[in-house]
Amino acid sequence: MPEIFINGQAVQAGDDQTVMQVARANGIFIPYFCWHPNLSVPGNCRICVVEVEGDGGGNGWLDIACNMPVSKGMRVHTDSDKVRERRKATLQFVTLNHPVDCGICDKAGECTLQDYHYQYNGEPSISRDAKVHATKHYALSERIVLDNERCILCTRCVRFTREISKTHSLGVIDRGDHSLIRPTEDGAFENDPYSDNVTDICPVGALLPTQFLHKARVWYLKPTAQVCPGCARGCSIDLWHRKSEWKLKALDAKQNARIDRVTPRENAAVNGPWVCNKARDLAQHFERARALQPLLKGRPVEQAVALEQARQLIKSARNAVALVSNWASNEELAAFATHVAPHFACRVKVDCQPEPGEVVQDDILIRADKNPNTAGARARFQALPDDARRAFAADCDLVLVWGEGFNFAQLPPKARIIYLNSWLQPENGHADVFLPISVQTERAGTYTNFQGVVSAFEPCFAKPAEVADAEAVFAALAVKAAKVTA
Length: 486
What we know:
It is a single chain. This protein is of the alpha/beta class. It has twelve helices and 23 strands. Helix 2 (about 80-95) crosses helix 3, helix 8 (about 305-315) packs across helix 12 and helix 9 runs parallel beside helix 12 (about 470-480).
């Protein structure tokens, strides 16, 4: 491994590495627009320029770090006077036709052009010529809007569709200051299940998701580490929601407890820096109408009353079956196994199936199993047979159903039902005992994905008053049911 020097600091480099890669590996910052660690190197923005010392005669030169291979003994300066002057000049070109509309741009607070201009330039454009205008609010798809005036033609989005999603659905038309990003005419970008990733990798406010457009300033929000439950991949994500110190007081209070956007949380062991579009739509899943009240045959009761009735059903049951959720966390499964499972024949059901039109599986991230913890659940309990009726004996007198996705018409007609779920559904009132439980955004836990990787998630919001965590429910059900096995 060759030794090179960056800002006078000796560092070890790989034979096939670039100066950019070595600098990043050693915590040395070099700005960049077009470069991305997971994409090819176009070398077109020139902001990552560095100074390389010459042969000792003062014959140093400036070159871009993203495409500069290392060589033994080379000496590089990333922030010399010559480098700063060149970056300042480069930013004059980058902002030549840029509208500089930071005050109304959704990317403000996360824009690298804004950051670099403040650090290396900080001056108005020296050009007195009128800016070249381009299309505004161009709909790349139903999910993404493009502002060509803000675009700096880094081509990250183009390379993403060619190298990662492989839809080849974006390109550049025309030349010079008339160049524009445009989708292909076959509509492939509209159907690209990973298209929203281009909004994350866009370094400016050119590509914006319509779901988040003009919704909130990013400095009003904070990210919470979560796991996407949309399939067995279990991608690491961030759920963005309102900071408590910036909560809204005059408008609808529900906006303080909503998911404003979803972005990938980089995890090399699971999803790298990407997620599919389904992850971006998790607000539609988590913000459905909630079940907020325990019920006895549709009659609202206090939680303590419902728990006591459930205990009595468990105590008196002779042949009980439990249908376990594969959306349950490992911690919930452990509590169930400890407190409740000994009284039941347990089978893992499938909570969610692919939706019509949904990509079922591909070679990038998406898995056919649309449930986050099938591996964790089946490590403890057997799977429910395809013909669910085979799981119930003729004398089955109690069924505990945990989670969504099961047709109550398949249950034994004479069996009593204990139902644990989070959402407002007709089945809630049909159960002998219904217990509302918390959702993933209201508790901490872990999922085990199809490869055996365990990922953790944290709570974003508080639980409603009459809603309990499943772990607490199972612990409460065990208090008097233990006599069954005595």
